[in-house]
Amino acid sequence: MPFNYSKYKILLAIIFVGLLIIGLSILYWWQNSNALQPQPDQQAVIENRATNALKAVTDVANEVSGITSGAVFTFEIADIDGHFANFGLVRYVDEVKTDPVVEEHAVNFREIGQGSAGNAEVDSVTNQVVSMHRRIVDFGGELSTTEIEQRVRQFLERVYPDFKTIEPSLTVAVNMKGTRLNNGNYFFRWDDLNYKNTLPAGIHTDVDPFVQIGITANGFIFSYDNTIALYRSQNP
Asked: For the chain, which residues score pLDDT lower than 50?
């Protein structure tokens, strides 16, 4: 039987096309997976912007707290592409929780020498500070409850100007507006309970969006959380 060169050529062509498709698929996967990781130049930009955003918030906190000199920025980056502690948009299918529906791009900070007690989060997409928790500094005399709330509002007006506009739509958390704890610290918290009603069917929040401030009886702002701006910047 004579050798069929036509069939041989067709077979080689099929093998070649198959190998080409596999090669292109591997190249596409490698480029996309690599693109998801911050590149050196891009990483430096992200670190710089996030650090400047956090420093701006701590500077305002210091100023409102009455610290006008000698303040030192005590945070360092722990993870350039981490997660947020109080954020999550997830989909439920037949009452079963599935994977998150949006990606998180948090720059996580830690306070030097404070272990896990001091930490902060910045959204690398918007450079919005999502949280800031730092060591308490004890100084000065105690302030009245009215003075404490004035400082809280002054701080919020500076770091989150939209708060004044959206406050009427927020709900004061139970026992979380000027509540003084046994350790002498106050907390003010507002929840956005309406946000979940704006989400597509089947999508839920892990935690309702909220703004919370922690302040000592002496007027030192030691914590700030704001997931409202973070949630509202998403498009699930």
From this structure: 3, 33
The secondary element (H helix, E strand) that includes residue 229 is: helix 228-232
Pairing between β-strand 171-180 and β-strand 75-82 as defined by DSSP bridges? unpaired
CA distance linking residue 90 with residue 170, whole number of Å: 22
For 101-123, give one letter per residue: b (16+ CB within 10 A) or e.
Answer: beebbbbbbbbeeeeeebbbbbb
Say if CB 227 and CB 193 are below 8 A apart: no
Distance from C-alpha of 4 to C-alpha of 113, rounded to nearest angstrom? 77
Q: In DSSP terms, which residues pair with 111 in a beta bridge?
A: 75
Q: Which residue has the tokens 């036509």?
A: 6
pTM as predicted: 0.79
Which among 115, 39, 109, 120 has a CA at the least distance from the CA of 78? 109
